[in-house]
Amino acid sequence: QKEVEQNSGPLSVPEGAxxxxxxxxxDRGSQSFFWYRQYSGxxxxxxxxxxxxxxxxxxxxxxxxxxxxxxxxxxxxxxxxSDSATYLCAVNIFSGxxxxxxxxxxxxxxxIQP
Amino acid sequence: GAVVSQxxxxxxxxxxxxxxxxxxxxxxxxxxxxxxxxxxxxSLMLMATSNEGSKATYEQGVxxxxxxxxxxxxxxxxxxxxxxxxxxxxxxxxxxxxxGEFYNSPLHFGNGTRLTVT
Lengths: 114, 118
What we know:
- The complex is a heterodimer.
- By secondary structure, chain A is mostly beta strands.
- In chain A, 0% of the residues lie in helices and 52% in strands.
- Chain A has strands at residues 4-5, 11-14, 19-25, 32-38, 45-50, 54-58, 61-66, 71-76, 85-92, 103-104, 108-113.
- In chain A, the strands form two sheets. In chain A, strands 2, 4, 5, 9, 10 and 11 form a six-stranded mixed sheet that branches. A five-stranded antiparallel sheet of chain A has the order 1-3-8-7-6, with no helix packed on it.
- Chain B is mostly beta strands.
- In chain B, the strands form two sheets. In chain B, strands 2, 4, 5, 6, 9, 10 and 11 form a seven-stranded mixed sheet that branches. Chain B has a four-stranded antiparallel sheet with strand order 1-3-8-7, with no helix packed on it.
- Chain B is globular and about 40 Å long.
- The interface between A and B is medium-sized, with 25 and 26 residues.
């Protein structure tokens, strides 16, 4: 059973502060990890992908992966009101039978307070 | 690149009718497309995996006779909700993996279709 867990929030962060979003997953075979942002009524858009342990930075975003702890996080520096959205954690496991879809968490609703 | 177009963006239909949703990869060929469904305040749930030229693989609990998937070409997959009922009202989102991309590459999502069954 593949499970991805996130705190649904809402997580409220002052503008300019660091927003920290967390995600745990149950399947140790998971090999690739993604953070998507979803605005209300819209489809997800990719923010970050991470495949190996450690940190990966892209602009104001940093993804962190710890496979031993089955934990992946997303940090958003200098938070802006436009960052207010639901952030979805997604994992992918290769079953050996071909391409697999992603398993998504329920998402964390982030609110950046001006 | 990697644009996925989904049509229609919004549809309202009466109970008992069928609705077809199209998912097209505009600037790439997609050997695999995925269909997701999202209920309000819930996560995306994978319904089925569609491979070009072969039958779709459905997730447990998804009725293959109710949700008909056709992936006739490398740029088009369709989802038909047959005999729709109010409980089928949801946000349906397709995604695609570019031909040649590795299995762990990110998916490219369409804009979704909001289905309301009255």
